[in-house]
Structure formats: structure tokens, C-alpha cells
Amino acid sequence: MRVNDALLGLVLILGAAAVAFQAQAFPDLPGQGFGPSLMPTLIAAGLAGCGAALVVGGLRRRDGPWITPGAWTRRPGQILDVALVLGGMVAVILLWQRLGFVILATGLTGLLISRFRGGHVVGSFAIAVVAVLTIDWAFRHLLLVPLPQGPLTGLYW
Amino acid sequence: MDALLAGAALVLAPDNLLVMLLAGAFGLFVGGMPGLTATMATALLVPVTFFMPPVPAISAIVTATAMAIFAGDLPGALLRIPGTPASAAYVEDAFRMTQKGEAETVLGAGLVFSVIGGLVGAVILALLAPTLAEFALGFSSFEYFWLALFGLSCAVFISTGSPAKGLVSVLIGLLLATVGIDTTAGHPRFTFGSVELLGGVSFIPAMIGIFAISEVLRWVTGPRAAAHITRQFGNVFRGQWALFRRYKVNVARSAVVGTGIGVLPGAGADIAAWVTYALAKRFSKEPEKFGTGHVEGVVDAGTANNASLGGAWVPAMVFGIPGDSITAIVIGVLYMKNMNPGPTLMLNQPELLYAVFVTFFVANLLLLPLGWVAIKLYRRILEVPREVLMPIILVFCMVGAFAINNSVFGIGIMLVLGVLGWFMEENGFPVAPAILGLVLGELIEHNFITSMIKADGRLLGFFERPVAAVLGVVTLLVWTWVVVGKVRQVWQDSGPRRSAA
Amino acid sequence: MNRRILMGALLAGAVAMGFTAAAEAAYPERPITVVVPWGAGGGTDATARIVASLMEKELGVPVNVVNRTGGSGVVGHSAIATAEPDGYTIGMITVEIGMMHWQGLTDLNWESYTPLALYNEDPPGVNVRADSKWQTLAELMEDIKAAPPGAMKASGTGQGGIWHVALGGMLQAAGLAADHVQWVPSQGAAPGLQDLVAGGIDLVTCSVPEAKALIDAGKVRSLAVMSAERNPAFPDVPTLKEAAGIEFTVGAWRGLAGPKGLPEEVTGVLVPLLEKIHGMDEFKEFMNQRGFGMVYKPPAEFAAFMAERDAAFGGIMKGLGLAQ
């Protein structure tokens, strides 16, 4: 998805203004005339400057529509793929503690693999189970990362 | 000299070599996992080192970290997921080379020049350790500020395309670095009331998101041509000698710069890689090739990140001041062995410090065969069809992002920055400068604010100490030169177009 | 025959013991997590790991240390306080729990936890560069009093960190404003000490083990220690009271605690266990090697200690302009 430079510049200027506005609320260091607001203010000034440059450049060229959607947005199948990848990750984040790593990761990888291969559901889930259990074992036992087990707690090693 | 020989004898004992072999395999494994750093490899080794005498304990840590830094190149080159932050600087070049079918060349270069960098670093340290430690101790916040600002100028060299967009990318990185409790005043910034955001935007999930998740998204949204690499995977060592001859100046420069950066407390392998990558591009005969799958930057940064590893041990062992997060853990281990770091250690057990350098030397020699095996095993990834690989990469990324703080919030950061990175690349914003901004943001701000406090707000205070004055003038000159060059470039770019319009 | 009876009896006994053990040992039946609000390799992490390994040995279930860092300790402390109070997530709480709520970073305070055991406290020393003109604390305090506010610079931790508060408390006890010496924030004691040696600041307040290597190196001189008694490792360094007649003691402490409302069956297991661990030779040896000060307070005393420190810190932090 390509966005015209002028529009991007405008967004940057607005974002910079928001950052600068929030930063002014930060207190100064005791006994000093500056503090935590200094760096964000400088960054905001830089972003606004770059934004202005992009606006000028974008307007001068004016070589395309404001927003050019990527080719994938015209293929419903691919829109669904993107939604599955992003939505799947959001679901994993939300359910992480409740369902645990193995259930979520197997579900997500199994779903995505079978979707990308255009079928082969059983085989895809078989791959997913093996891969996820291997990862789970390596990270929890060799690397001592406390991946949550969810309802399966105590059921597998 | 006696101490050096005594140290060598300790290291070359058979049981110690066995420990190094095992630790090396472990380091390769950890470094090859996205999200798991050399620091984490060290932390995981600590409980094991409880049961070892001092030299094997140190050998295990040294070997594991040296291997982990190299192993970070593997997923970087093959999957565009830097295994450790030290591989982030050149991940773009390495990955593009793999796409061009030159995987064995880039992995071989990563291996060979890691080894060379590590060996040179070890020799420099063995010769100059006490002097370097004394020098490093003389750095106050003024010097660090100039150094960090100098590092930031690297962003200009590494960014490709429009200068304004490169600058936006740096600024986004710097802005992300300000999130969380500010290091000077302890005031929460841009946290929106979230306890997790008080901790800031963790670097590892951010890096995984910007590089790996955006790559997955690009594949999902792309045409998905079945670009299956079926051709035979060649000998990784072929052509390395020619590379060495062509880039011998680069190798020498990067080994020295890498070791120097490593000695400074607070600056480690990742900063060494960025700086030497930028230097390589600046002095290259073909800078336009950087970022498109060119091996030169890989040679430089690959040499430097391994060279820097040993440097951090010098201030740690001589003055008890950790040079990086790895040696911070090492100091703890040394105390545990009743060997309190400091000059008394140098006086009473100098062989121990030399044992560290000998270990670095041996570990890097050991890296050659072990790394070769690791490449052989790892390259099988290329044989897995993308339809299967991509979802599994996704899972790896999530686990890696979780592992750094054991918090699901890391996965959230990874996802948000993955989408941001994908959007930025779609619109011609280089992403590498954003990572550099994130790395250097805190260093710059912290040292600037504390220097201002010390100088009571007088900017002249930044030039009053001799080393600071020299660094300051050099940095300002570099920046002036950069800005003038860019302005001229913009002027030339816009000139013809204006006449055309 | 006899042998068979014996075997049978043994077997029956073993089975019975197994059953009763299973029935009684409701806690702990699965791995315990110890949350550490600070990074791997630091002092809090190291002590947590040794305690966890001894707990594991005694309890027979895995005891995992999990580092939840960031936000000056707020992230980890809130992870402990908001965990399920089932005894399977406990954590290391540190001196910062009595400080960060004054700064308005969090609503958590010592009352958000079930205290289990306090096992360590380290008092800070007052350190200057070895080639500076101050040989005693009295000389240093005279110069501080003579200097205009903010002219002298000190460091040792971040703004509002424990050593900053320690310095403020010392100055207040000496009759000065708490912020009479300008604090230069640093990311921990080591960078602060490095800046001291590099000549960037005048003094550093930090714990004795943190400064030990540089004191031994002859780069740093310790003028006094902010405790009631001298440190056995540095018998020549006087206390604040001995050196300049200042009545003030403070220290960074570490203790184990669980979320509020831990049930009796959990505390009944953990409290005696932690007291036992504190007495073990392995633990003593470890603490002495690292130079960590050993103290022990059971839950009730630990709570009273935190309440008292909390109130004292509030006063100092208001004087430093840190409390909101």
C-alpha cells in the first residue's frame, strides 16, 4: 500500500505536533531548566521538518493518487490471508495465558500452513504439531523460557 | 609472558577444551534462535558454571558468546531474522545475497571474518589490556555523548533512498527509545497509563518485528512466486580467500574499531557492527551496492562484532566495571568463585585475565569447524517450502519476542512494529536507521542530559575536557560534511525535475 | 517367609507414606515461579537464583527464576502483586517498593504483598575520587555546606533511586536541604563510579560491594558508611555518626514476598523454609563472597520494617522534589 508523500508528510506533522504537545507536560529536572521533555521536543521538531519536506516534494511531483492500494487488495484470497496472519497473532496475544502456547501455536500454524498450501488439512496440522512441540520443548527445557501451558498444564512434559 | 603461558596452559587442558566444545554447541544453538541473545546464553550458563572451577566457567561463557554472535548471522541471512542484535546492521545485505543464490558465500564470509575478527581482537587485548582499561575509565558522559552522536551519523550512511525518509526513520527509532520511564528524571513518557510500557519498547521484539514480521507480511501480500532454491549448496569456504585479499583493509580497520568499541563500557557488539558497516560504506569504492546484497558490509561488521566481544572483558576484569550486559553477568560469576574483579585480580592472578584472551583465541579457532557444521544443518531451512516455513517463522518470532522479558507484551510490540516496518518499506522508508535510533536513543539522551546537569546547562562544557573536545570537533565536522553533502544531493536531484516541470 | 512379610510390610508402608505424603503435600505440587524485577546478572537476580536453587532442593519441585525487568522495577513488582495468590508465583521485592509510589509511578506499596522473609540489606558508602582533597567525611561536609546549592555533583543511580534518596537523607540529617548537592542520574552504580573516576562528578553514594573493586584499585576512597556499625570488610571506614556526627542510617534491602492474600498453607511452608535457607552454609558462603549484608526478618517484622522505611523515604523524597 503506497501513500503519497504529501499525505505521509501531513501525518508526520500532525504526529510530531501531538508528541510535542504531550512532551510539554513533562516536569523539568529539579533545579534545571530542562528535563525529560527536551529530547521528544527535538525529535518532534525534526519529524515536523521532514514532514514539511515530504509535503513539498509530494505536492511538487503530484505523480499519483493519494493512496495506491497494493495488488493483493484486489485478490480476496490474499486479503483473507493477511487477515488470518494479523488476526491470528492478535488472538494469540489475547489468549496467551488462558490457552497456553501449544494450543494457540498449533492452531495458528496448522491453519496458516493448510491455507497457504491450499488444502492438505491433516498433513498441515501434523507438521504444525511436530514443529510446535519441538519449539515448546526446546524453549521450555533447554532455554528455560516459561511458555504458558494453559489447560494442558501438567499433561505433557 | 609467564602469565600468558600459565593462562594458555589452563585453557588448553583437555577437560577445559571439552567444556568449550559443549558450550560452543550451546552458543550456536542459542544465537541461531531469533530473539535469544548472547547475553541470554550467558545467563543460562550461570547455574552450570556454579559447579565449575574458574577457568572452565569463564571458558564456557566466552565460547558460548563468541559462537552466539556468529550464529546470529544464520537466521539473519536465511530468513531475515537477525538472531542477535549484533547481526542487525547487515541483515539486509545478507538476506538479499541468499535470495540471489549466494547463501554459501555470505554465510562463509560471516564465519571466516567472525573468526578473523575474534582472533585479532584477542591478540590486541592480550597486548594492551591494562592500557586500554585505563583509557576506557577516563570516559565521562561528555565523551560518551559525542561518541553516541557520532554513531548516529552512521544512520545517514546506512540509509538508502530519499534523505528526508532516512531521517524520518532515525527519528522514529529515537522516538520509540523515549517511551517508558525516562532514565534521567524517572518520569514516565508516552506510556498511556500502561505498566508494561513503563519498561519501554524492548529492542529485541522491535527488531524481530521490523525485520522478520514485515518480511512475512511482504510474502503474504506478495505474488508468492515459488522461488524454490533447488540448486546445490556449494562449499562455504570457496572464494573466502579472494574476499579476504580484496577487503584486507576493511578487515584490519573493522577489527581495530570493533575491539576499541568493545573496550568502552556500555558500547558492545551491536554498536560495533553498525559503526563499521557505515565506515565500510563510506570508504567503499562501490557504496551504491550496499543494502542490495553486497558482501563488503558483511565482511566489515562480521569482523567487528566478534572483535568487540573480548574488549568488554577488559574494564570488567581490571576495574569491575562491566563493558556490556554479558560481562555484567560475568562479574557476578567471578565473585561467586571468590575472585573479586579489580586490580588485585590482575596482581594476584594475572594468568586469569590472560586465560580469557587465550580462550577467545581458542574459541574462535573452534568456531571454524563448529560454525561450518551449524551452516550445514541450518541451510536445510532453505529446502523447506515457504508455505510451511512462513507460519513456523511466525511462531519462532512470537516465542523469541516473548522470551526477552517473559511477557506477552513483547509479542504485541513485535506485531505493531512489524506492521509499521512493512508499511515503511512499502513507502520507501529504509528501516535500518530506525533500529539504529532505537539502539542509540537512550545512550544519546542520557549522556546529553547528565552532561548538561554537570555543566550547569553551559554547552561549552561539552568541549572543556580534552578527549571530549577532540571527539566533539570530529563529530561536528562529520555532521556538517554529511548535511552539506545531502543538501547538495537534494539540490541536484530537484534541479532537473524543476526545469522539467 | 519372614522376608516376604518384611518386604510386604515395607511395600505397604511405602505406599501408605506415598499416599499420606500426597494428601498432605497439597502445596507445592507443581513448579514455583520466582519473579525478579531486575535484570539477569545483577545482585537481586543472583540472590534470587541461589534462594531458588535451595528452595528447589528442599521442596522437590522446580523453582524457576523469571526476570521481569523495566520501568525502574515497576513492571516486575506489579507482576508479583497481581499474580494469582496461590503460592506458585512469588517474587523478590526490593527497597524501591517504598519509593516508587511516592514518585507517582505506581499505586503499589508494601501493603500490596504478603511478606515472607527479608534476607539482605546493604548500606551505602560515601565515596570520593582517591586523588581528591577530601580525606574525611567532616572535610567533605564542610565543603558541601560552604558551596552554593547545586554546585557539587553526586551520582550512583538514577533520579529517585535508592542512593539518591540516601544522599538526600544524609544531607537532611546534617541540617542541609536534601537537594543541596546536585544529583547526576546514572544507570547504576558502575557507570556512576566510572564517571567519578573520570572526573565528571564529586562524590558517589553506592553500596560497599559495588565500589569494592575500585576501592581496592586505589581509584576511589570511601569516607563513611551509612549504617549503625562498620562493615567488617572495611573496618577502617567509619560510620556517618563516627565520622561527622550525622544520625542517619539507610540501606538497600531485598526480600521475598507473594501477592496479597497468600493462604496459610502456603506461608506455613515457605516462611519456615526461607528461615532455614537463611541459616544454610551454602547461602551464607554465597552472600559473604558477594559481600552482601545478611539480615533476617520474619513476615511480621519485615512488614513493620517496610512501613517504617516507607514513611522515612516519603519525607526525604519530598525534600528532593521527587514525591508528587
In short:
With 157 residues, chain A is mainly α. Chain A has four helices and two strands.
Keyphrases for this structure?
heterotrimer, A: 157 residues, mainly alpha, 4 helices, 2 strands, 68% helix, flat, B: 501 residues, two-stranded antiparallel sheet, 23 helices
Q: How would you characterize this protein structure?
A:
- Chain A folds into two domains: 2-68; 73-152.
- In chain A, 68% of the residues lie in helices and 3% in strands.
- Chain A is built from four helices and two strands, in the order E-H-H-E-H-H.
- Chain A has helices at residues 5-23, 38-61, 76-117, 121-142; strands at residues 2-3, 67-68.
- The radius of gyration of chain A is 24 Å and the shape is flat.
- Chain B contains 23 helices and two strands.
- Chain B is globular, with a radius of gyration of 22 Å.
- Chain C has 324 residues and is α/β, with parallel strands linked by helices.
- In chain C, the strands form two sheets. Chain C has a six-stranded mixed sheet.
- Chain C is globular.
The computed structural class of chain A is: mainly alpha
Cα-based radius of gyration of chain A, to the nearest Å: 24 Å
- The number of distinct β-strands of chain A equals 2
Q: Give the domain tally of chain C.
A: 2
> What is the strand tally of chain C?
11
Using the coordinates shown, work out and report the CATH topology of the largest domain in chain C: D-Maltodextrin-Binding Protein, domain 2
What is the CA-CA span between the terminal residues of chain A? 45 Å
Total DSSP helices of chain A: 4
State the CATH architecture of the largest domain in chain C. Answer: 3-Layer(aba) Sandwich
What would you call the structural class of chain C?
Answer: alpha/beta
The CATH fourth-level homologous superfamily of the largest domain in chain C: Bordetella uptake gene, domain 1
* Biggest interchain interface, per-side counts: A-B, 65 and 62 residues
